[in-house]
């Protein structure tokens, strides 16, 4: 620690930071624009000026920029100095010269950093009477709105978009008062992180276009802490609702997970909650194939209890449903009759993933540890499309090594200087995938191969690092030299990381990744291992004892069950059509609980409307193994209920569970792997100063009028029995413990930058620690030999890839926008989702006699599927890429399958 | 499409730097020397050649006021309006040139002969007021001298 003096008072602060960092961390209000805790300092806006004094006898001092001045021991500054204040007032006045002062019609109004800083600086009277420069705005696609005339030239947008997130299509054009931030020409922003611009921009140049379509001010949004449902990384979010519809998602800081940012799928995927495809009322089918008619919840439950009491019930859970919902189903049907809801292949992969992380010595890393890794091997995963925030994290990890090498000369927070010094130098990042990825551009080596060959490369790396690990036979010399380079780079790193996952559907790749990470976890070093999974609660479903979907189908087929309850699971996306057919054919009753009308719901005998994440509480376990609780943002409306409540109401547990916390407690007792998930959150009885935490901000307007169409009496706010949050503006409005923070707001700080006030130090963890509880920690050694005769490593490298003649291995290709089940219902995401296609290498397409744009016929279980061909130059021969779950391709890909392909006959 | 000469010159310049992006400004000047200005498609082509995005390269191009992103006349007049020239009457001179050519600052004559641009300093304050036409510096200007000079540029 070093000592600095502010207004002649001594303060202890951390060394190696700048004065702006230090002052904000100490709680001083010092205005700024261009600085951002994740982007650091460039000294562009001149707003954070303070007076620095040589020593205690220096009374004149000099003006310095706090963000560009090291907080060295003995530094003396004044924020309150008259000249410093006048300087800052001057700066804001000239920054505001061209600002249109259009706050009433600006979406940023009420949560605008520029408003806050203007008020903070005291610039309340406009003297400038001249003309203002205006710009023509661009259409940047479905996510981000552009209003350039509001710009104050802080350069944060291009520093985030280009420098931090690696996007190439947003730049600063022209100069002087004409500086323009935008694209070269109108068009969709290419980066999957473009939505962060709305939070990065200190004013209303870039705003959330999805919010614009159903706009509400920040003070009119009901908010609660939540967790993203669109991949398995578990990014923390703050959804905002009004009038019973969800209006936007904004970032919720979790230093260990997403930090300051979200991907566009996570930010804009929420609109499925408002979708016309929502199931809003129970449906009851007359007979087996009669029409399904809407009924009341009471009538549905009466019928359900009849069915349940008179049947042997099997249950199919879901990797996108909460732990509590899955457990309620497991309780209802009994452990032996409970299936996890994953396909055969997904289940095997998920089991392997959780075992590798639980039983091996490598550490399941958080996203923050990915950002800090200094050498990375990616085996098989296209992380940008599968789990986008991993892409953003890897773009930071490649900077670790060069920044470390340079930081002796330049402080790491001096961003512009550091980037100048680092130039194009990057730390080691090796990528081995079948198809090109957008990270290839920053990779040391990007290598294209079939899944088995990728696994063989991994096995080779492991065997080079530790001779006792098995080496694959017959590896080519090019592969051998790549493996040698990878082994050397990982071996020398301080924090090596291996990334693999279930995206390719290959167990061999997972084993290879485990071997590499395990060999690196030796000599006091713990290597990082990041294994991605597809859905928000895939890890939770894997840790809960169950089985694949086929387990329930077999129970029905064998007659040990005659009725099946399907929880938040569209089987048609996961299981072979024949399996689903069998289930519906043989089961006496099919009961489906889901939030959206999908093909499975459409065939159900009884369909029950489930609450989405925004209307329910529950726990997801992220792919890291971090259990995180999400809370209702708005109460479920009408006949909609949380899945666990439907399940509790159906069975004998009806009396036992009244709130979600009780389900979680029972889960912990039944399955010790989940113990601690309740300790990480605050129970429904938790109060601060005797108050619940208010979901609605103090300024929430229209409460007495918003239900006037129903009755003039003001209605009682809905009661929330499940959590310490209230559906009201009454309640605690200050800073609650981290897992319960419903929004960032502090006196004088109305924008998202109020987050500074919730952190131990700016950029650091939330006061009270990062939310979530890790359920998986590395085993102290390699897996023990017994019980099964298990070697210290996976010891079966696959044989070289050689597809049978005339057949192609199906490689699943994920798309950020389009492959995920729920987000595709957001209009913006649907707009960006590609149409279905088949990817073939040039050679294979030539052999088949199909040109680019030609049509191929792909043999599937249900016949031939016609798909337009996309040529993928670097795709290995013998591998055909099929996009996952794009429209028309749901349930088509079963990874590892070999299929016949032929040129389509002309019709 | 970049011409063979343009490409060769750019590659020769790029050879001096470890990173191709370093040669961005030189490359823009090379194209401008051949074509008089830098059209949109040249930005696309150069971006590809230098491994830069179009946006990034156009950010560089549009920053410099001597990289022309719109067509200019055969001769570009840079009339200094900085302080020394201003003290010695650059205002009136600019007005005079404008009137004579029938164009405002920033415009090109209908016959494509001249483009008139202001410049903040040409580094010849001791001989103010000054202007540059193409690569020639003209000093100690007055109206009569301007008349004679303009005649020389066809």
Question: What share of the residues of chain B lie within helices?
Answer: 40-55%
Radius of gyration of chain B: 18 Å
Strand content of chain A: 15-25%
Question: What is the count of structural domains of chain A?
Answer: 5
What is the residue-averaged pLDDT of chain A?
Answer: 93
Helix content of chain A: 25-40%
Any key phrases for this structure?
heterodimer; A: alpha/beta; Ubiquitin-like (UB roll); Rossmann fold; 5 domains; seven-stranded mixed sheet; B: 154 residues; alpha+beta; Arc Repressor Mutant, subunit A; Glutaredoxin; 2 domains; four-stranded mixed sheet
What is the gist of this entry?
The complex is a heterodimer of chains A (907) and B (154). With 907 residues, chain A is of the alpha/beta class. Chain B has helices at 4-14, 24-35, 40-50, 54-63, 83-87, 90-101, 143-151; strands spanning 75-80, 114-119, 131-133, 136-138.
Can you walk through the features of this model?
The complex is a heterodimer of chains A (907) and B (154). With 907 residues, chain A is of the alpha/beta class. Helices cover 26% and strands 17% of the residues of chain A. A seven-stranded mixed sheet of chain A has the order 15-14-26-25-24-16-17, with helices on both faces. In chain A, strands 18-23-22-19-20-21 form a six-stranded parallel sheet, with helices on both faces. In chain A, a hairpin with a 2-residue loop joins strand 1 and strand 2 (9-13). The N and C termini of chain A lie far apart (77 Å). Chain B has two domains: 4-63, Arc Repressor Mutant, subunit A (Orthogonal Bundle); 75-151, 3-Layer(aba) Sandwich (Glutaredoxin). In chain B, helix 1 packs antiparallel against helix 2, helix 2 (24-35) packs antiparallel against helix 3 (40-50) and helix 3 (40-50) packs across helix 4 (54-63). The longest helix of chain B has 12 residues, at 24-35. The A-B interface holds A 162, 168-175, 183-184, 423-424 and B 18-19, 43, 52-56, 58-59, 62-63, 65.
């Amino acid at each position: 620690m070093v000592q600095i003096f502010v207004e002649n008072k001594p303060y202890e602060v951390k060394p190696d930071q700048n004065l702006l960092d230090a002052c904000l961390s100490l709680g001083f209000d010092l205005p700024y624009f261009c600085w951002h805790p994740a982007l650091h300092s460039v000294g562009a806006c001149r707003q954070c000026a303070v007076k620095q004094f040589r020593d205690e006898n220096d009374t004149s001092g000099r003006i310095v920029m706090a963000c560009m001045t090291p907080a060295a021991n003995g530094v003396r500054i004044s924020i309150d100095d008259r000249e410093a204040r006048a300087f800052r007032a001057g700066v804001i006045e000239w920054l505001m010269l061209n600002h249109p002062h259009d706050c009433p019609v600006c979406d940023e109004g009420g949560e605008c950093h520029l408003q806050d800083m203007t008020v903070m600086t005291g610039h309340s009277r406009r003297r400038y009477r001249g003309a203002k420069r205006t710009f023509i705005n661009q259409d940047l696609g479905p996510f981000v709105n552009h209003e350039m005339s509001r710009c104050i030239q802080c350069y944060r947008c291009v520093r985030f978009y280009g420098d931090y997130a690696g996007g190439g299509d947003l730049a600063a054009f022209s100069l002087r008062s004409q500086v323009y931030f935008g694209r070269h020409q109108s068009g969709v922003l290419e980066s999957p992180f473009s939505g962060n611009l709305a939070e990065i921009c200190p004013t209303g140049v870039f705003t959330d276009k999805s919010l614009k379509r159903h706009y509400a001010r920040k003070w009119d949004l009901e908010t609660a802490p939540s967790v993203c449902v669109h991949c398995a990384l578990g990014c923390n979010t703050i959804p905002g609702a009004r009038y019973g519809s969800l209006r936007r998602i904004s970032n919720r800081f979790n230093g260990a997970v997403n930090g300051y940012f979200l991907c566009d799928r996570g930010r804009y995927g929420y609109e499925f909650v408002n979708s016309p495809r929502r199931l809003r009322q129970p449906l009851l089918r007359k007979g087996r194939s009669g029409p399904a008619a809407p009924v009341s919840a009471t009538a549905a439950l009466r019928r359900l209890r009849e069915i349940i009491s008179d049947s042997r019930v099997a249950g199919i859970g879901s990797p996108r449903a909460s732990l509590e919902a899955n457990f309620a189903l497991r309780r209802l049907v009994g452990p032996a009759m409970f299936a996890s809801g994953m396909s055969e292949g997904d289940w095997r992969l998920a089991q392997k993933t959780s075992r590798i992380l639980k039983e091996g010595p490598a550490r399941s890393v958080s996203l923050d540890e990915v950002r800090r890794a200094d050498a990375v091997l990616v085996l098989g995963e296209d992380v940008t499309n599968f789990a986008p925030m991993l892409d953003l994290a890897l773009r930071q990890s490649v900077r670790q090594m060069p920044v470390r090498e340079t930081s002796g000369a330049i402080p790491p927070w001096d961003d512009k200087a550091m980037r100048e010094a680092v130039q194009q130098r990057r730390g080691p990042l090796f990528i081995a995938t079948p198809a090109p990825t957008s990270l290839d551009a920053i990779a040391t080596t990007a290598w294209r191969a079939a899944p088995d060959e990728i696994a063989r490369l991994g096995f080779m790396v492991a065997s080079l690092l530790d001779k006792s690990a098995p080496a694959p036979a017959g590896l080519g010399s090019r592969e051998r030299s790549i493996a040698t380079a990878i082994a050397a780079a990982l071996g020398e790193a301080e924090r090596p990381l291996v990334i693999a996952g279930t995206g390719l559907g290959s167990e061999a790749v997972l084993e290879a990744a485990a071997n590499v990470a395990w060999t690196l976890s030796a000599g006091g070093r713990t290597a990082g291992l990041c294994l991605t999974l597809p859905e928000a609660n895939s890890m939770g479903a894997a840790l809960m004892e169950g089985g694949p979907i086929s387990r329930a189908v077999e129970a029905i087929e064998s007659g040990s069950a005659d009725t099946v309850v399907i929880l938040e699971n569209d089987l048609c996306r996961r299981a072979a059509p024949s399996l689903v057919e069998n289930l519906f054919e043989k089961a006496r009753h099919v009961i489906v609980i889901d939030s959206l009308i999908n093909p499975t719901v459409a065939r159900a005998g009884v369909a029950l409307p489930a609450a989405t994440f925004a209307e329910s509480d529950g726990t997801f376990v992220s792919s890291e193994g971090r259990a995180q609780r999400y809370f209702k943002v708005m109460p479920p409306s009408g006949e909609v209920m949380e899945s666990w409540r439907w399940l509790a109401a159906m069975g004998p547990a009806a009396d036992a569970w009244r709130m979600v916390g009780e389900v979680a407690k029972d889960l912990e007792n039944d399955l010790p792997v989940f113990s601690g998930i309740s300790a990480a959150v605050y129970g429904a009885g938790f109060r601060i100063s005797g108050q619940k935490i208010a979901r609605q901000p103090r300024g929430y307007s229209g409460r007495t009028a918003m239900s006037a169409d129903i009755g003039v009496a003001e209605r009682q706010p809905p009661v929330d029995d499940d959590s310490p949050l209230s559906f009201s503006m009454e309640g605690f409005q200050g800073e609650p413990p981290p897992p319960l923070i419903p929004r960032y707001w502090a006196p004088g700080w109305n924008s998202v930058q109020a987050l500074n006030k919730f952190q131990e130090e700016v950029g650091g963890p939330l006061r009270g620690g990062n939310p979530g509880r890790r359920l998986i920690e590395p085993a102290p050694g390699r897996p023990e030999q017994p019980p099964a005769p298990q070697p210290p490593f996976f010891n079966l490298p696959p044989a070289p890839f050689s597809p049978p003649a005339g057949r192609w291995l199906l490689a699943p290709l994920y798309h950020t926008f389009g492959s995920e089940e729920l987000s595709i219902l957001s209009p913006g995401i649907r707009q960006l989702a590609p149409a279905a296609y088949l990817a073939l290498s040039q050679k294979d397409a030539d052999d088949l006699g199909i040109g680019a744009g030609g049509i191929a016929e792909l043999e599937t279980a249900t016949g031939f599927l016609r798909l337009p061909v996309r040529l993928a130059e670097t795709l290995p021969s013998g591998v055909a890429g099929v996009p996952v779950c794009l429209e028309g391709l749901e349930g088509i890909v079963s990874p590892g399958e070999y299929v016949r392909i032929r040129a389509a006959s002309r019709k | 499409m970049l011409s063979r000469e343009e490409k060769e010159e750019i590659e020769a310049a790029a050879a001096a730097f470890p990173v191709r992006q370093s040669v961005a400004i030189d490359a823009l000047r090379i194209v401008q020397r051949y074509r008089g200005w830098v059209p949109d498609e040249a930005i696309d082509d150069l971006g590809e050649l230098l491994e830069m995005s179009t946006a990034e390269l156009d950010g560089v191009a549009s920053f410099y006021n001597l990289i022309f992103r719109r067509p200019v006349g055969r001769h570009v007049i840079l009339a200094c309006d900085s302080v020394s020239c201003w003290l010695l009457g650059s205002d009136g001179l600019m007005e005079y040139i404008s009137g004579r050519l029938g164009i405002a600052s920033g415009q090109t004559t209908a016959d494509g002969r001249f483009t008139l641009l202001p410049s903040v300093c040409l580094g010849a304050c001791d001989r103010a007021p000054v202007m540059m036409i193409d690569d020639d510096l003209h000093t100690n200007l007055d109206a009569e001298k301007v008349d004679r000079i303009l005649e020389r540029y066809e």
